[in-house]
């Protein structure tokens, strides 16, 4: 039976093959947009297909709806099969190389007959690639860097892919009558930005029954291993998932062990040894004893070792054990601390939700304020707003606030201003003065030198009207490294200027990287968590940004999403 995962893969392949075939950008873009829209798990594709109402979804036209229906009912798309027949299978793989799109892939195929990564790598090394029209020695170097990056990240998945794959499995296991407790562990529980696999730890007196349910769940593509207490499967997403079953008395120890990280666990085991104890996934044993110290929760384990509880996000051996020993760990912010969200796009630029949609969502979710931030005028590719459109949107926001203000929801007038190549913002001062807040972001000229890119951003963050620095490095996880920039120098400049630093919560970005969040805080920066939402489902990306903030030791007082709208507006006004 077709699934959402298989459908999205088919539509993604359609977009790639159409671009290889020279289709117009609007048609290619429509398929890419459909992937983004139909990836929203709140959309019941099967029900819409059955009712013939796919085109009721904004952004799904008649042509794509027909393809979705065909795939959902037959498991294939005739046009996709025809397109596959036009090109060697390896040509699509070339488009997955960071920075090497369909146009370049088609060029090397037409001119050199290259249709595999290995052949492209050879051509980049022996000089053939740089001789092609439109290519150069620097292009060949970038191709080799892209291939290295692709291989480096091979077999890794973004956190949103892991999270989405884990949730239905957790729900099914929790509903199983033989399961007493179950949690996801590993990189996912620590909220790492990517993961290789998903680990589940389950407490049960009947492991055989639970493992049988696990390996036969919907979404399992194949079983790769099954023993007495462990089973491994390959999911439709391509991820591997492992289930470990333990006795209920061992659950806390197994969960802590398989949560990791490896470096954190090594330190804990040594701490146990220093105290005459042996720590492993089954328990904490005094020397010469086969009976573990009791632990119903991980807090008990930490207490046995003379430590305050260490949240899973912090378990990276980056000072958390020393802080826990002194009871000096921060009180990390939580979802309940969040009352505002900013960096939201509307149909005025390249977003889907209307102002009303955002206000309604905020009211349902108990969010008090939402900061609209469409693209600025230089971002023509994303429908950037000209000054007259900006002013019209301000009037529309006023009207929405008149309706929703009495209900406790307020929309703020913002913009995501392109940082121009010289570091200037994207409007004249009279337009900039009218915004409640400004997110300044780089969207072009990623190839500037480190000195040039750093100077560009330094000028932007020093601008008195820049409220927030958006996605500081421009990285796309598993696809594109961030541009060359001296990140710590920029963070220190943000602290001096009072410019807030964004944790872009889009799981493709998660930029600021969690490894620098703590440095930003120690430098005196304030943080914002920006979903960079282009669909309503994108607002749920808050969970990933929250994970990054917690992983960077962030507290509620240092994250402006936890402030009232009035406090945030006053901060932005004073900075201006």
Would you mind describing this structure in some detail?
The chain has 24 helices and 16 strands. It is an alpha/beta fold and 576 residues long. It has 4 domains: 4-152, DNA polymerase beta, N-terminal domain-like (DNA polymerase, domain 1, Orthogonal Bundle), CATH 1.10.150.110; 155-246, Beta Polymerase, domain 2, CATH 3.30.460.10; 266-329, Beta Polymerase, domain 3, CATH 3.30.210; 335-575, TIM Barrel, CATH 3.20.20.140. The strands form 4 sheets. Strands 10-11-12-13-14-15-16 form a 7-stranded parallel β-sheet. Strand 6 (230-235) and strand 7 form a beta hairpin. Helix 1 crosses helix 5 and helix 17 packs parallel to helix 18. It is globular and about 75 Å long. The termini are far apart.
DSSP strand (E) fraction?
5-15%
Number of strands: 16
Radius of gyration: 26 Å
Estimate percent helicity. 40-55%
- Separate helix tally: 24
Q: What is the CATH topology descriptor of the largest domain?
A: TIM Barrel
Distance between the termini: 57 Å
